[in-house]
Amino acid sequence: MTESSGDALFSGRRKTRVYEPELKQSVLKRALAGESVPALCEEKGIESIGTVYGWVYEHRRKGGAPVSKDKKSRRPHHQPKLTSQWIVDKILKIKKEKPEMGAKAMSDHLLRFESVSLSHSTC
Questions:
Q1: First to last CA, the chain
Q2: What is the pLDDT along the chain (123 residues), one digit of tens a residue?
Q3: In 3-state terms, what secondary structure has residue 68?
Q4: Staple 30 to which of 35, 38, 53, 100, CB 3.0 to 4.6 Å?
């Protein structure tokens, strides 16, 4: 078995690289001074020029504040389409009682006996 490199579609978590604040600050200073961003990336070993452009954008958006270590979470604040917990409990109960039941049969069962319309992919 080989380890996934992250290049394939649906390969799992996205790999992110964490850069030292000193490196960010020096690259940002040089980029704001007018140096070529692709050349800076090549020199410092930064894989994506979009990373540096993101630092520049964030720096300008914050009004020239120094680069912070804190990373803004990408987690959604709310999930309006999240399946209700009572439905999840019903699905788990049915799965425990009838482990041979597949997702399509389970969604049909929920519709017929529980009056819950749910996609088989959600089950």
A1: 30
A2: 233 444 555 555 666 788 888 899 999 999 999 999 999 999 999 988 999 999 999 888 888 766 665 667 778 888 888 888 999 999 999 999 999 999 999 999 999 988 888 888 888
A3: coil
A4: 35
**Nearest CA among 114, 58, 54 for reference residue 86:** 114
Question: Encoding tokens for residue 57?
Answer: 């954008």
pTM greater than 0.70 (yes/no)? no
Q: Residue 103 and residue 50: Cα distance in Å, rounded?
A: 41
Sole residue written with tokens 């080989």: 2
Question: Is 27:11 a contact under the CB 8 Å cutoff?
Answer: no
